[in-house]
Design goal:
This protein is of the alpha/beta class. It has helices spanning 17-24, 45-49, 65-74, 95-100, 123-132, 155-160, 171-181, 206-219, 221-224, 253-267, 282-287, 305-318, 340-351, 404-407, 431-448; strands at 4-10, 32-38, 56-59, 80-85, 88-90, 108-116, 138-140, 150-154, 185-196, 238-243, 273-278, 290-293, 325-328, 355-362, 367-369, 375-377, 391-394, 400-403, 417-422. Strands 1, 2, 3, 4, 5, 6, 7, 8 and 9 form a nine-stranded mixed sheet that branches. Strands 10, 11, 12, 13, 14, 17, 18 and 19 form an eight-stranded mixed sheet that branches. A two-stranded antiparallel ribbon has the order 15-16.
Length: 455
């Protein structure tokens, strides 16, 4: 079994690198090493990668694709070289075995595998990937198309023909032309497939792409709406954070609301761990959930909620729990739609949102006061509700799911944003804004099973 060196190039790939490496180290072909070539990432890419048994880390600046690959190979030992993009995730555990099987013929210089979209890949990119990477294996004699997002080649061939270190892109096709001109063959193997969330081409017309993709999605419905296993809601590591400020009496309305929030989280299918952020561990012990001592957070009484959650994430990761996203829950909201937490998680995972939260659709007319203390209409339209665009009131406290990459910037809203639209005004009620009496009434209505009008 030949030693394979897997070269992974990275630049701020924090969102993807763990998913990529997780599948790499699950491969049935075991004789391999991983070389990570990092282009001065300023996020947590390298820190996340160090959780895995990487053989060597190579750092480069002034990135050029061919240079990065060559430097990675120079730090490697394998007879076979694999190039894998950090945001590509092998689909199967025999991906590497399948790639290697193509190099038994010495006439073959290299092989490349299929690239599949994920469910939230843009229409243009879905079209490109599904058109370019088909289902038939082929041997390329004159066709020099080659793609280093998912490829393999022999070291002895590379020693004759290194990658061009000056070109700024398509270094793989430049190399492919050189080796085919020298009489070698290339192989495309669709069984050696990876998920690759973005496409190959730029500047395509999105409207036309949507039309093409709508047909492809019908024909290839079994592959276009998939996710890698580690990104699926049922396997993605989702942590819920419930911050509590101060001591809470057992007979208070706050205590009732905290209990409701925890019970709701415990019934969610896709929430893996619940963390109570408080000065008192008793509630966490009672419900058998995890606890973060609020006093461990620096200058905690002066922190924003973004900072509270960000510092809490650091504590969670120091305990070797590495969630992909955090669900922030403000216990002061008594009314949440059934299944809200799971719906937020499904939305985030399948639509690729960095942040997703509920929003109340408000068709009202609003005014604001300018610097001259004059009232100005936000929207002067007096059209009927059916012909108006609503304002969306953000309800972060009902449940805001944020990726850890965004949360590390001390923000709970950022990146690609999704809003789960709600039309029940009762979901906007919260203890801080509406007071104890209103919340007690809301709880009594809910618990009695009646509607607001008493029916």
């Amino acid at each position: 079994m030949e030693l394979v060196s897997i070269i992974i190039r990275t630049k701020n790939e924090e969102r993807w690198i763990a998913h990529c490496l997780d599948m790499v180290f699950k491969q049935t072909y075991r004789n391999f090493e991983v070389i990570l070539v990092d282009n001065e990432s300023d996020d947590h890419t390298v820190a996340v990668a160090r959780r895995f048994p990487i053989a060597s880390f190579v750092s480069i600046s002034n990135f050029r694709p061919g240079l990065a690959i060559n430097e990675g190979i120079r730090a490697s030992k394998g007879q076979y070289i694999v190039c894998l993009s950090a945001h590509c995730i092998p689909k199967q555990t025999d991906w590497l075995e399948q790639l290697v099987s193509n190099l038994s013929d010495e006439k073959v210089a290299g092989a490349y595998g299929r690239q599949l979209p994920v469910s939230f890949t843009d229409a243009v990119d879905k079209r490109d990937l599904l058109i370019v990477f088909g289902q038939d294996r082929r041997v390329q004699v004159k066709d020099y198309f080659f793609h280093n997002a998912n490829s393999i080649f022999r070291r002895d061939i590379w020693e004759k023909f290194e990658f061009d270190e000056e070109v700024t892109n398509i270094e793989d096709r430049v190399w492919g032309k050189v080796v085919t001109n020298a009489g070698y063959h290339l192989i495309y193997d669709p069984l050696a497939s990876v998920f690759h969330h973005h496409g190959l081409h730029q500047g395509n017309n999105p409207k036309r792409a949507n039309g093409v993709v709508s047909i492809i999605e019908q024909v290839d419905s079994d592959i276009v709406n998939q996710l890698p296993e580690s990104l699926r809601p049922e396997t993605a590591n989702i942590a819920a954070f419930v911050p509590i400020q101060g001591k809470v009496d057992a007979d208070s309305i706050e205590h009732q609301l905290i209990v409701r929030a925890i019970e709701g989280l415990k019934s969610a299918k896709y929430v893996d761990n619940i963390y109570l952020i408080s000065t008192d561990a008793s509630l966490a012990e009672k419900f058998k959930i995890r606890w973060i001592d609020r006093e461990l957070l620096p200058d905690v009484d002066n922190l924003s909620i973004d900072e509270v959650l960000g510092f809490s994430l650091e504590i969670v990761e120091s305990r070797e729990d590495y969630p992909v996203a955090v669900l922030y829950v403000n216990y002061q909201y008594p009314i949440r739609p059934d299944g809200l937490y799971d719906e937020l998680i499904v939305d985030a995972q399948y639509k690729g949102y960095d942040t997703v939260f509920p929003g109340y659709l408000d068709f009202g007319h609003y005014w604001h006061q300018n610097d001259n203390m004059e009232f100005i209409e936000i929207d002067s339209s007096m059209a009927s509700r059916q012909n108006r665009q609503p304002i969306v009131k953000a309800l972060y406290g009902l449940g805001c799911l944020v990726s850890v990459a965004i949360l590390r910037t001390r923000k709970i809203v950022g990146g690609k944003i999704g809003i789960l639209e709600l039309d029940d005004i009762r979901t906007t009620l919260n203890l801080k804004d509406h007071g104890t009496e209103t919340i007690y009434k809301a709880l009594s209505i809910i618990d009695s099973g009646t509607t607001p009008d008493g029916k």
